UniProtKB/TrEMBL annotation:
The keyword Transmembrane helix applies. Keywords: Membrane, Transmembrane, Transmembrane helix. This is Zf-HC2 domain-containing protein. The keyword Disulfide bond does not apply. The lineage of its organism: Bacteria, Bacillati, Actinomycetota, Actinomycetes, Streptosporangiales. It comes from the Bacteria. The chain crosses the membrane at residues 86-111, 123-141, 162-184, 190-209, 214-232, 238-261.
Length: 269
């Protein structure tokens, strides 16, 4: 990008793009994302193509001449509906996983309401920090999403799309957890930060070993280190005690930093 005007791409970068020169993946992604929303840079690119890539310009002209009659007489382009806008935040593969995560919270409330949990500790409190992880496992995974490679090749794929889908999961699961906690008299203050920290750790670890595997690791460690001791002993696990809130804040900060540093890993097909 131009140092003097960071809002636009440099003319040299636009010329390289017009000539189809080799450009680093992250730079290419940034440029194509910028061109989507910048009419000025698209106009500059259109001016450069005839001089930098005459065969490409000739091909575009011939294609436009062939398509122009049908384009001018075709039906109007329909507006994007709510489902189309929702597709930018979710994928069909995510739905059963997110619903399953929400059902875990509902079942935990049922257990707390009708059965006596050992030690009197709410099961919702012990499960809440890792419930969103069950939905996060499906937001960006090659093994579960048949359209993964197609989506990964788009300009806005990678960390941007990953975070949008993560927000979508949290937007569905978190209200369920809050209501579940209020139903049995458990404050969300205690589990909210551990929940965000576990989510961030899953995303950061997913940049190394794939997201679904990272989710399995986080849920397993939580089950062994917090859930099992909480159910089998008479003491409240320190991980969900108020004293641990600052520690979870630090974990969240470190995981977020790792996620930002490894953002490029999510843009690889």
């Amino acid at each position: 990008m131009n140092d003097q005007h960071k809002a636009h791409a440099s003319i040299e970068l636009i010329r390289r793009y017009a000539r189809a020169d080799a450009i680093a993946g992250e730079v290419l992604w940034s440029l194509e994302s910028h061109l989507e929303s910048c009419p000025s840079c698209r106009a500059r690119l259109a001016k450069e193509v005839p001089g930098q890539a005459p065969p490409t310009a000739a091909l575009v002209d011939r294609t436009w001449e062939a398509l122009a009659p049908s384009l001018t007489t075709g039906p109007p382009v329909p507006r994007r509906g709510r489902l189309a806008r929702l597709a930018g935040w979710t994928s069909p593969v995510m739905l059963p996983w997110v619903v399953g995560a929400a059902l875990v919270a509902v079942l935990a409330v049922a257990v707390d309401s009708f059965f006596a949990v050992p030690g009197g500790r709410p099961l919702v409190l012990l499960l809440a920090p890792v419930v969103p992880v069950l939905g996060i496992a499906a937001v960006w995974t090659k093994s579960l999403d048949p359209a993964y490679e197609l989506v990964a090749a788009t300009p806005r794929a990678g960390l941007y799309l990953l975070l949008r889908r993560t927000v979508a999961v949290l937007a569905v699961v978190m209200p369920v957890l809050v209501v579940a906690g209020l139903t049995i008299g458990t404050s969300s203050v205690v589990w909210l930060l551990p929940c965000l920290a576990c989510t961030a750790v899953t995303l950061a670890l997913g940049s190394v070993i794939r997201l679904e595997r990272a989710a399995v690791v986080v849920v397993t460690l939580w089950s062994l280190g917090v859930l099992a001791p909480g159910l089998l002993t008479s003491q409240l696990p320190v991980a969900v005690a108020p004293v641990a809130v600052p520690v979870w804040g630090a974990v969240f900060a470190v995981a977020a930093a790792v996620l930002i540093l490894r953002a490029r890993s999510f843009a690889r097909v």
